[in-house]
Amino acid sequence: MLKWAIIFAVISLLAGVFGFTGVASGAAGIAKILFFIFIAITVIFLVIALLGVGAVA
Q1: Nearest to 16 by CA among 26, 28, 24
Q2: Quick one: how far is CA 20 from the chain centroid?
Q3: pLDDT class for 15, splitting at 50, 70, 90?
Q4: 20 to 30 A from 2, CA-CA: which of 27, 29, 33, 53?
Q5: pTM of the model as a whole
Q6: Is 26 exposed, middle or buried (0-12, 13-18, 19+ CB in 10 A)?
């Protein structure tokens, strides 16, 4: 999922350089949402790992 956030961030940068501000703002918004979802999933997996829920006895 982080790959898609990076792709949309690059699209927004390129669109901004070429003057497509509407596309750039849309792609930046999507990249921001995907990045926050990725961070949330990562934190959830870290908490589960620290609690030892996934540990095999």
Answers
A1: 24
A2: 22
A3: confident
A4: 53
A5: 0.69
A6: middle
